[in-house]
Amino acid sequence: MTMAKEWGYASHNGPDHWHELYPIAKGDNQSPIELHTKDIKHDPSLQPWSASYDPGSAKTILNNGKTCRVVFDDTYDRSMLRGGPLSGPYRLRQFHLHWGSSDDHGSEHTVDGVKYAAELHLVHWNPKYNTFGEALKQPDGIAVVGIFLKIGREKGEFQILLDALDKIKTKGKEAPFTHFDPSCLFPACRDYWTYHGSFTTPPCEECIVWLLLKEPMTVSSDQMAKLRSLFSSAENEPPVPLVGNWRPPQPVKGRVVRASFK
């Protein structure tokens, strides 16, 4: 079999093939996973978490052909995540989304068999490792806050992001995206599950402390349709819709998921 030149989500280069190029994708601490709440214990030692983000650190929005990503200035401690299962503060680097080809599936993690419409990932790194690249090599190098999106009423704050998508319709397009505080997307309830896992895209490094929020964010079906209007193809190529950019759940392999709530 010839190696897929670039990983993706199609049958020839999708999640089943990633390990051919990135062997860690078959590792013991891969993400996402299925959460079975009856097996998850409340850990009273887990602290509340907090995020203080500087809206001025938001820089650009990008279509990289795999997702839309908002990039932040992470050269200083401007936008930080603290508390929860984390030993120190982590710097916000980017956030991105995973979504399906329709409203009824698109999240990567599942809760008691439920798949949500989409999943938002806010990626932070531990500045005690000096660079993002170094943090990728450490088991506690990265912290990701995962937020599920479910269908309901429109969310105004989310629309700000969606309105910017017209500028990045095709792969490789980037546009300024400034003065945005992503904590406006957080649900009111801060309850979370946490476990040790990996990036859900290659190289699938196993360096992530996950904080998965129990309460989903509600968006409208029209808002989800707007996400699916992006293309994974470049401007000069035949149009290919950017949909179904999620990795299926991976084996838990004895890992323990803890809950911050009873």
Describe the overall structure.
The chain is mostly beta strands and 262 residues long. The chain is 9% helix and 28% strand. The chain is built from four helices and 15 strands. Strands 2, 3, 4, 5, 6, 7, 9, 10, 11, 12, 13, 14 and 15 form a 13-stranded mixed sheet that branches. Strand 6 and strand 7 form a beta hairpin. The radius of gyration is 17 Å and the shape is globular. The model has no long low-confidence stretch (mean pLDDT 97).
Q: Return the average pLDDT rounded to an integer.
A: 97
Q: Approximately how much helix is present in the residues? A: under 10%
Rounded to the nearest angstrom, the radius of gyration is 17 Å
- Structural class assignment: mainly beta
Number of strands: 15
Q: Which outline best applies?
A: globular
* Biggest sheet overview: 13 strands, mixed
Count of helical segments?
4
| Unreliable residue runs | none
Beta-strand percent range: 25-35%
Distance between the termini: 49 Å
Q: Write the H/E string, N to C.
A: HEEEEEEEEEHEHEEEEHE
Chart the SSEs and their pairings.
Blueprint: H1 18-21, E1 34-35, E2 41-42, E3 49-52, E4 58-63, E5 68-72, E6 80-83, E7 90-99, E8 110-111, E9 118-125, H2 132-135, E10 142-151, H3 156-163, E11 174-176, E12 192-197, E13 208-213, E14 217-219, H4 221-227, E15 258-259
Parallel strand pairs: 1-8, 2-15, 10-13, 10-14
Antiparallel strand pairs: 3-6, 4-5, 4-11, 5-7, 6-7, 7-9, 9-10, 12-13, 12-15
